[in-house]
Amino acid sequence: MAAATAAAGLAFALGLPAPAGAMPAPQVGEPGVARLSGEAVYGFSCVVDGGRYWIGLGLIPRPTYSVVVNPMAVPPLAGSGLAPVAELTGAVGTGTVAHRCTSIATRLTNLALATGTTSPLGILTLTQFLQAGVVAGQPVIAIGQLALPDVLATLPLGSDPHQALARVTERIRRVSTGPAIAEVLLREGLVEFVEVPMD
Fold first, then answer.
1. Cα 75 from chain centroid?
2. Residue 88 CB neighbour total at 10 angstroms
3. Are the C-beta atoms of residues 84 and 77 closer than 8 Å to each other?
4. Distance between CA atoms of 94 and 8, rounded to whole angstroms?
5. pTM of the model
6. What is the pLDDT of residues 40-81, one digit of tens each?
7. Core-most of 34, 81, 129, 189, by most CB within 10 Å?
């Protein structure tokens, strides 16, 4: 396993610039950001930009049966409304980069669905379920505990999994903070939008 994953890895915010087609983080006041409709949830999806695969975060379609399944195709980042939080840089074993990307995004969104955190405010707490460490000699990020069945993503050999998780957590916070504030302000009735007639 270690040899197969040595060259493969997840470049979790390792100082990589956002891809050219990346959408900026949603801003407070943008339509659909602060208020989720019945057709959308705040979650993760795999997107592609110039042949590079990214885990994106933002509004995604609500799954039919409260569980996300791996999609058959990976949509482009441009126009998706998602902000990239991590780039996948290599395949593992017989799995392609696209398959790893969709699998990781699917597991993260299913974790958010299972924990009731599919809103910008909820996503801010989602990372408390993630653990960084080493499993079978390989640096990993896992869900819940550091055990092989719980591995979410493998990292390149020699990388610091704690640093990688900290960078991903920071990117998730940057993307979600503005919409989370707007969500609370609107939900708590702290902001009232009034139309002012123009003369």
1. 15
2. 27
3. yes
4. 12
5. 0.73
6. 899 999 999 999 999 999 999 888 877 888 888 899 999 999
7. 34
